[in-house]
Design a protein that fits this description.
It is a single chain. By secondary structure, this protein is of the alpha/beta class. It has one domain: 3-Layer(aba) Sandwich (Rossmann fold). Helices cover 31% and strands 17% of the residues. The chain has six helices and six strands, in the order H-E-H-E-H-H-E-E-H-E-E-H. The protein has helices spanning 3-25, 64-67, 90-96, 105-121, 153-160, 214-232, and strands spanning 57-60, 73-76, 129-130, 138-149, 175-184, 190-199. A six-stranded mixed beta sheet has the order 1-6-5-4-2-3, covered by helices on one side. Strand 5 (175-184) and strand 6 form a beta hairpin. Helix 1 (3-25) packs antiparallel against helix 3 and helix 4 packs parallel to helix 6.
């Protein structure tokens, strides 16, 4: 039997099983809210606060708004990956084998830190100066990468060439989840915590669909800009969530 026919048959059978499961579990474009990790001190207190923050879960100290004006510097700690969960995308594992678990964890953690730093450097007004350590009037941002499931590149390649392929797009999506907490650098008091999960944006055609972590990098950039906006705006300002749909093929 032709090897291409065998691969097509295997893919079709596996995809039918997993896409059926996806269709029944989640038909929306927005990624589901995940349980928080032990990284967060206030994880049980996190709730959606969409009138202010675009994250799945958000908490801030009752005193934060009153004291935030006392801070002029922010230090971003190296991103921790010790709470990163194992790959949880059965279809990716079936289609891509061991490659699916070969994740660029350290590289992605550095991207997270760099993007958050760039967001503050480029923020209008320059309210917070990036600093390298503790000090009076300095906040410390600690971040944890907790999920990093790759996009199913093989599945997307086949999907693009299959009639009605968009119907199985949910089965090929990856996701990335981040948690963060903001402390007073001198006392260590936690003033804010957040958690969010984002999956691949929907698009008719996107080069990110052909990259295992291209969509994750987009999510990271969105988080960095959102957090920087949250920090420089008053409590009455709503930071908009990122769109689940994109027309940008790059």
């Amino acid at each position: 039997m032709n090897i291409r026919l065998v691969r097509s048959f295997v893919f079709g059978s596996v995809l039918a099983v997993f896409s059926a499961g996806c269709a029944t579990s989640s038909s929306g474009l927005k990624a589901k809210t995940l349980p928080t990790s032990a990284f967060l001190d206030k994880g049980a207190a996190l709730r959606p606060h969409r009138a202010r923050a675009p994250f799945n879960g958000y908490w801030e100290s009752p005193k934060f708004e009153a004291v935030r004006g006392n801070y002029r510097g922010i230090s971003i700690s190296p991103v921790t990956t010790q709470y990163l969960r194992a790959v949880d995308r059965p279809l990716v594992t079936v289609m891509e084998g061991p490659k699916a678990k070969d994740r660029p964890v350290a590289q992605t953690a550095e991207i997270v830190r760099n993007e958050f730093g760039a967001a503050f450097r480029n923020a209008p007004g320059g309210r917070y100066q990036l600093v390298g350590g503790k000090g009076a009037g300095v906040l410390v941002l600690e971040l944890a990468l907790v999920e990093m499931n790759p996009t199913n590149v093989v599945g997307n390649m086949v999907r693009y060439g299959a009639p009605g392929g968009s119907a199985v797009a949910p089965a090929t999506k990856g996701n990335c989840a981040l948690e963060g907490k903001l402390r007073d650098s001198m006392t260590g008091e936690v003033l804010m915590e957040f958690a969010d999960n984002e999956q691949d944006k929907f698009s008719v055609v996107s080069l990110r669909d052909l990259s295992s972590y291209g969509h994750a990098r987009t999510s990271i950039k969105d988080w960095a800009k959102q957090f920087a906006e949250l920090m420089r705006t008053p409590a009455t300002h709503k930071v908009e969530d990122s769109s689940t749909v994109t027309l940008n093929p790059l």
